[in-house]
């Protein structure tokens, strides 16, 4: 009985990992930029504290949970513009009332890691990194 229980637990845990990849991206922040006065992108003062931070974005609702660019303060609306494919990026948005947050994960890129870019709320600016 103990062996069957252990096998069942291992099976369930491995199933959860597969579903997580299909239902959400897990992302890591690598860079944070801001717009300079001359219109170019420069490293933001937030990069030092945000680099290496993580978040998850739902591939079903567009909701983002984590340390960086969370959407729980959105006015109840998040969504998906494009679900992503081998030819297109995944694109999500969050409505904060007077501002929108946009996130793109380049699903079409080969390999396990997919680059992302997000124009975020809260003064963070433009956040980039990788998702899996």
Describe this structure in words.
With 132 residues, this protein is an alpha+beta fold. It has one domain (23-131). Helices cover 20% and strands 42% of the residues. The chain is built from 2 helices and 9 strands; from the N terminus they run αββαβββββββ. Strands 1, 2, 3, 4, 5, 6, 7, 8 and 9 form a 9-stranded antiparallel beta sheet that branches. The longest helix is centred in the first third of the chain and has 22 residues, at 2-23. It starts with a helix and ends with a strand.
Number of domains: 1
What is the assembly state of the chains in this entry?
single chain
Gap from first CA to last CA: 36 Å
Number of helices: 2
Topology diagram in text:
Layout: H1 2-23, E1 24-35, E2 41-43, H2 47-50, E3 54-58, E4 64-66, E5 77-83, E6 90-95, E7 100-105, E8 114-120, E9 125-131
Antiparallel strand pairs: 1-2, 1-3, 1-9, 3-4, 5-6, 6-7, 7-8, 8-9
In short:
With 132 residues, the chain is α+β, with helices and mostly antiparallel strands. The protein has helices at 2-23, 47-50; strands at 24-35, 41-43, 54-58, 64-66, 77-83, 90-95, 100-105, 114-120, 125-131.
Q: Which keywords apply here?
A:
single chain, alpha+beta, nine-stranded antiparallel sheet, 2 helices, 9 strands, 42% strand, disordered N terminus
């Amino acid at each position: 009985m103990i062996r069957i229980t252990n096998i069942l637990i291992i099976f369930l845990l491995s199933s959860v990992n597969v579903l997580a990849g299909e239902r959400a991206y897990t992302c890591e922040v690598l860079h944070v930029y801001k717009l300079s006065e001359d219109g170019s992108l420069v490293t933001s003062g937030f990069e030092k504290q945000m680099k290496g931070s993580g978040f998850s974005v739902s591939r079903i609702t567009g909701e983002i949970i984590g340390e960086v660019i969370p959407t729980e303060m959105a006015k109840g609306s998040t969504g998906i513009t494009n679900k992503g494919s081998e030819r297109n990026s995944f694109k999500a948005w969050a409505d904060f009332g007077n501002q929108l947050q946009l996130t793109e994960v380049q699903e079409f890129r080969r390999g396990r890691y997919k680059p992302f870019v997000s124009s975020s709320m809260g003064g963070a600016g433009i956040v980039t990194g990788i998702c899996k």
